[in-house]
Amino acid sequence: MTSPQPLRHLYLGGARSGKSVLAENAAHSWLQSNPNGQVVYIATAQVWDKEMQVRVSQHQQRRPEHWQLVEEPMQLAEVLTSNRHAAQPTCVLVDCLTLWLTNQLCQQVDDDTDAEVVAQQAVHELAEVVENYSGQLLLVSNEVGSGIVPMGELSRQFQDLSGLMNQLLARACDKATLVVAGLPLVLK
Question: 3-state DSSP call for residue 25?
């Protein structure tokens, strides 16, 4: 059986839309077509409270134990770059880009540095890495631009940067799918 061509696929959707499940199913399908391959799951969440722990636990329960787990809340571009040279065929699944972006925006920076500028630079760096990525890559991100404009500055920065990030990644990916009510809507 020949392995499919490498593919970069962006899954977008609202909270609890089913985007993660669809990306996980794609990783399962890829592994069936590549039995000598491996799945690397890059988790970006940081657990700060009980509610987030419940969300992380739900993802952990769905994930097979044989998938390699990399927990990386900040240095995503670097981890993707290092995974390009795996010894065996690899499917990388990143969940979730908007949590990664939140981590970027909320990081401690010195008084002379603007966290929004640092986050925007990280978004551009990630988009460049994705555009040049030559393996199987599945990205999960929230679509947050369909609602009202938030009242707070940090929330507006997050909404604006996530919109920019999703646009850049959709351009860099071979496929983009919007997930609504568990149903995939192919955008690209």
Answer: helix
**Cα–Cα distance measured from residue 165 to residue 162, given in angstroms and rounded to the nearest whole number:** 5
User: 116 with 105: CB under 8 angstroms?
Assistant: yes
CA separation for the pair 45, 100 (Å, rounded): 7
Q: What average pLDDT score do residues 146-174 get?
A: 93
Nearest C-alpha neighbor of 138 from the set 104, 103, 175, 83: 175
Strand extents, DSSP E, the chain: 8-13, 38-43, 68-71, 90-95, 136-142, 175-180, 183-186
Q: What is the pTM of this model?
A: 0.91
Residue 114, pLDDT above cutoff 60: yes
How many angstroms separate the CA atoms of 188 and 185, rounded? 9
Distance CA 142, CA 20 (A): 10
User: Looking at residue 146, what is its pLDDT?
Assistant: 85
pLDDT tens, position by position, 49-80:
888 788 778 877 888 999 999 999 999 999 99
Helix axes 19-33, 50-62, angle to 10 degrees: 30
User: Cα(35)–Cα(78) distance, rounded to whole angstroms?
Assistant: 27
Active-site option among 59, 66, 85, 124: 59
| Residue 153, CA distances (Å) to 9, 78, 149, 150 in order | 31, 29, 10, 8
Annotation marks residue 59 as catalytic: yes
